Amino acid sequence: MYSIDKFYMMYAIKLAKLGIFTTTPNPNVGCIIVNNKKIVGKGFHFKAGESHAEINALNMAGKYTKGSTVYLTLEPCNYTNLTPSCCNALVNAKIKRLVVASKDPNPKINGKGLEFLYNKGIQITNNILSKKAQSINYGFFKRMRTGIPWIQLKLATSLDGKIALLNGNSKWLSSKISRKDVQKLRAKSTAILSTSKTILKDNSTLLVKWKKLNYNIKKIYPKKSLRQPIRIILDRLNKIKPTDKIILYPGKIFLIKLKYTFENWPNYVEQIIIPEINGYFDLKYLFKILGNKEINSILIEAGSILSGYLITYNLIDELIIYLTPKLLGNHSLNLCKIKKFMNIINIPKFCFTNIKKIGPDLKLTLKPIK
């Protein structure tokens, strides 16, 4: 039975991944319904406010839900919010057994859904491929457990650990295929964070460019469903103005400042005032505010100063480096500016979680050792 459960749960996880670009702030969830050893229903959650995965699967299965086994990557909700309770729907469908990958970390649910269904006579099997299912919802799980989003730092570097020439020229350090991969990272993220200095230097909009996503992504993510991430700009010195390119493109923007500036900002721009610590924004405080705003994950694209600060103060969950086979030499900008260490024991340490060749570059994914 256990191997069969894993087989169907893998299928449910595969379905859940179809929502990775659209579900935020909700988690990615997939569902398979099996009756008499046949799949009679399948579904995934596409967007907050729309039907959950189990409802889509139940609708597909119809009368075949009676006496069935339901495979679900996340515990079903037991209360009505934007959508009705999925637990009630499963009971009304007269299912026999529920197999779940993981409990929902949301305090409103967190085991209550499973308890409700168990008390209704439904057989419950929990923790089937739990780690694999949670891996597609790192941001949701972290935010629910800590109140802070999943923080990714993205950098592109040469073989000798440089990000740009001394004059700031870094276009284009990484390959075209790597830059397409960055568009995928942006599309998956709830928010993109950068500094006013970086944005003005690159004349950036921080938007997802749908045309630059690869073909396979476009097939499951039509342009009409494009969700632009929230753009977060650290603007300590008030350099961003209402006439700047990034402001002219509509979409939610959080301007992070030390004090309000009374300029003619569009209604989609929100100023958030953050205090200083260690001569810079108190980023821990900022990340808690952003967690309260239901931001699951933040992709940070910035220069060496912010990158060094984040690494020095252990503020990231994942480091993504696009390593390009080029040498920029000594007269170039380093990957990040971190404080001087006198003992190698104290230096920031990472472990590789994935290494992938992507065109001529290597994509390195690392996790900090804290």
Structure summary:
This protein has 370 residues and is of the alpha/beta class. 28% of the residues lie in helices and 25% in strands.
Structural descriptors:
370 residues, alpha/beta, 9-stranded mixed sheet, 5-stranded mixed sheet, 18 strands, 28% helix, 25% strand, globular
3D structure, described in words:
The protein is of the alpha/beta class and 370 residues long. It has twelve helices and 18 strands. It has helices at 2-16, 53-61, 86-92, 112-119, 130-134, 138-146, 176-188, 196-202, 215-220, 245-248, 283-292, 304-312; strands at residues 30-35, 38-44, 69-72, 97-100, 123-125, 150-157, 162-165, 191-195, 230-234, 253-257, 269-273, 276-277, 280-281, 297-301, 318-323, 332-334, 350-358, 361-368. Strands 11-10-9-8-14-6-15-18-17 form a nine-stranded mixed sheet, with helices on both faces. The chain has a five-stranded mixed sheet with strand order 2-1-3-4-5, with helices on both faces. Strand 9 (230-234), helix 10 and strand 10 form a beta-alpha-beta unit. The model has no long low-confidence stretch (mean pLDDT 91).
Number of helices: 12
| Cα end-to-end separation | 39 Å
- Tally of strands: 18
Low-confidence stretches: none
Helix-strand pattern:
HEEHEHEHEHHEEHEHHEHEEEEHEHEEEE
Overall pLDDT: 91
In the sheet with the most strands, the strands line up as 11-10-9-8-14-6-15-18-17
How large is the radius of gyration?
23 Å
Based on the structure, what is the oligomeric state of the protein chains? single chain
Helix content range: 25-40%
Which descriptor suits the 3D outline?
Answer: globular
Main pleated sheet: 9 strands, mixed
Question: Structural class of the secondary elements?
Answer: alpha/beta
Residue share in β-strands: 15-25%
